[in-house]
Design goal:
The chain has helices at about 1-30, 240-254, and strands at about 30-50, 55-60, 65-75, 80-100, 105-125, 130-155, 165-170, 180-190, 195-205, 215-235. The chain has two helices and ten strands; from the N terminus they run H-E-E-E-E-E-E-E-E-E-E-H. The longest helix has 29 residues, at about 1-30. Helix 1 runs antiparallel to helix 2 (about 240-254). It has an eight-stranded antiparallel beta barrel. Helices cover about 15% and strands about 55% of the residues.
């Protein structure tokens, strides 16, 4: 009796091991991923607000600023996949900032140029040439420049009140930083050959946080653009497949 129980248990274990190996092998064979560079242009709208009752504003004369990205996406044979991309965007605008209260404050006028880098990741849906994705964008300020003036004002005349004026030429990081955003985008791909595809990527990106370092003023905005690039297709285990294979290998060992 005990030997029969051992035999049945051994057969079940073997079946589970073989099934796990089969699933892992099938996932490896079916796993595919794409990588590639893209470049294009976009339009953006920036809005400034101040909780203390000031009147900050932002204006831009850029017609179609540049943006570029390098993306990665899994292409498993399912409806949902993982994607990640590095996204560079350039912005140039005039900012009028207000800081202060009822008794006095500072009015700052800046000519600003910023270069931001965003790390974006999230799910991508679709199995054919057209896919849609939603992602969280974490931004860093790579660099830039700012020039302008700061005007002090007060309800009191000098010397009690501060009516000073000075020029601003410091590092752009003193006033600005990277912001966080939500990305909504689509991707259309058309095969050029067995490994390369043409990719067209319209997107919209909305701020979740301010790009100002501190103070009562807040600057947020919305970007709307399109990028075009080349993607290369690879066959092999991608990021998401490797992440899921880890627990599977542990179960096989057990």
């Amino acid at each position: 009796m005990w030997q029969k129980v051992q035999m049945v248990t051994l057969v079940r274990v073997r079946k589970r091991v073989l099934m796990a190996i089969g699933i892992a092998g099938a996932a490896t064979c079916a796993a595919q991923f794409d990588v590639g560079p893209m470049a294009g242009g976009y339009l953006y709208v920036l809005n400034a607000s101040d909780g203390s009752g000031g009147s900050p504003s932002v204006g831009s004369g850029q017609a179609f600023p540049a943006t570029a990205s390098f993306f990665y996406r899994d292409r498993r044979p399912t409806n949902g996949n993982f994607f990640a991309e590095l996204d560079w965007r350039h912005r140039a605008f005039i900012a009028h900032l207000d800081e202060g209260g009822l008794g006095g404050g500072t009015r700052t006028d800046l000519d600003v140029r910023l270069d931001h880098l965003y790390l974006t990741f999230g799910p991508e849906f679709g199995r054919r040439s057209m896919t849609f994705r939603i992602g969280l964008q974490l931004g860093w300020l790579l660099g830039g420049s700012m020039e302008g003036t700061a005007h002090g004002w007060s309800i009191y005349p000098p010397p009690q009140g501060d009516w000073s004026k000075h020029t601003i030429t410091g590092p752009v990081q003193e006033q600005f930083k990277g912001d966080q955003r939500l990305l909504l985008a689509a991707r259309y791909q058309r095969a050029l050959n067995g490994t390369l595809s043409l990719s067209v990527d319209p997107f919209i990106s909305s701020s979740l946080s301010s790009m100002l370092v501190s103070g009562g003023d807040v600057i947020r905005g919305v970007d709307l653009g399109v990028r075009v690039g080349i993607s290369r297709h690879f066959t092999g285990r991608g990021f998401w497949t490797r992440m899921r294979a880890g627990p599977l290998r542990v179960r096989v060992k057990e």
